[in-house]
Amino acid sequence: MTRPSPEVRAVIDLATAHFPPLGTEMTDIGEVRAFFAARPRPAEPQLAVARVSDEDADGVPVRVYHGGSHEGAPVVLFCHGGGFVLCDLDSHDGFCRALADATGAVVVSVDYRRAPEHPFPAAPEDAYTALRWAATRYPSRRIAVAGDSAGANLATVLTLLSRDRGGPPIAFQALYYPMLDPTRSRPSHRENGQEYFLTSDHLRWYWEAYLPEPAYRADPRAAPLACADLSGLPPAYVVTAGLDPLRDEGLAYAEALTAAGVPVEAHHYAGMFHGFLSMAGALPEAAAARESAFAALRRALGAG
Predict the structure, then answer these.
(1) Neighbour tally for 138: CB within 10 Å
(2) In Å, what is the CA distance from 124 to each residue of 5, 93, 112, 165, 170?
(3) Which residues are CB-neighbours of 185 under 8 A, at least 6 positions away?
(4) Which entry of 80, 126, 274, 278 is annotated as an active-site residue?
(5) How far apart are the C-alpha atoms of 114 and 122, rounded to whole Å?
(6) pLDDT at 251
(7) Which is catalytic among the residues 109, 149, 162, 278?
(8) What is the 3-state secondary structure (H, E, C) of the chain?
(9) Which residues of 271-291 are buried (b: 16+ CB within 10 A; e: fewer)?
(10) Residue 109 appears among annotated catalytic residues
(11) Per the residue annotation, which of 88, 244, 248, 278 is the catalytic one?
(12) Would you call 274 a catalytic residue per the annotation?
């Protein structure tokens, strides 16, 4: 069984110390969000992007980052993680700046409604509204969808909605340690359910907030692994981490996409943990992995 290096262990312990103990001592959503907002944020390099603006995407708040100055730059629609409950535009601002800087794309970060106040299907419908807005706002440009954790769930759900609702077309999907299976039944949930920052208690609490109606747990818009037909989806880049409770569902989704004929570039980092791409300032391995992930987006979109 893979164990974290001392350097990785130190980062995991620091992240754990600054994260609310969800589902155990802390369950009130107001208290959780206050704790989360007050935590120290990972150090990010100071990156200059051409322009950043907060805008209204047909009723859905978005933050738009212009990574390049040329007309016709491709678009990346980004959905943040946080278990459908936490995080927002500010929590992922540094990550989105890095993404825009590395790809030269226009990055549209979506502030979708969060559970428990707004359970499923609010989040995917908000994300789809933002996708349609981006396609109208930046016509004739290649569009990718990307996300981390719960945001990766929304990103891949967008590819299903795009296929089944007749667009807008999506050229690529970038899924970073996706949260896809509300049953939480795969071995990695048992192997990595404690000790590695994201815990089984967190995941139970997230899914219960997001899917209060049990019937939704088999709906592909909530649980993409439940989708019987994954054909016709855009090429995917899937990142998984060996110490992540979500490891096996990310690996299973990459395999399911491949079986459906979807081109997949899968990257597994055995010694890493959930959320590690946001720790690029603390871990050289995370910085290298993020550079590879962003380079794949740049290549897929032909971004400058």
Answers:
(1) 17
(2) 37, 20, 8, 13, 15
(3) none
(4) 274
(5) 8
(6) 98
(7) 149
(8) CCCCCHHHHHHHHHHHHCCCCECCCECCHHHHHHHHHHCCCCCCCCCCCCEEEEEEECCEEEEEEECCCCCCCCEEEEECCCCCCCCCCCCCHHHHHHHHHHHCCEEEEECCCCCCCCCCCHHHHHHHHHHHHHHHHCCCCCEEEEEECHHHHHHHHHHHHHHHCCCCCCCEEEEECCCCCCCCCCHHHHHCCCCCCCCHHHHHHHHHHHCCCHHHHHCCCCCHHHCCCCCCCCCEEEEEECCCCCHHHHHHHHHHHHHCCCCEEEEEECCCCCCHHHHCCCCHHHHHHHHHHHHHHHHHHCCC
(9) bbbbbbbbbbebbebbbebbe
(10) no
(11) 244
(12) yes
Give the mean pLDDT per block of 10 residues along the chain (304 residues): 88 87 71 79 62 96 86 94 96 94 96 97 98 97 98 98 98 98 96 94 94 92 93 98 98 98 98 95 95 97 75
Smallest CA-to-CA distance from 297 within 238, 224, 249 is with: 238
Q: For residue 144, how many C-alpha atoms fall within 13 Å in the half-sphere facing its CB?
A: 30
Q: Among this protein's residues, is 58 annotated catalytic?
A: no
* Percentage of the residues of the chain whose pLDDT score is greater than 90: 81
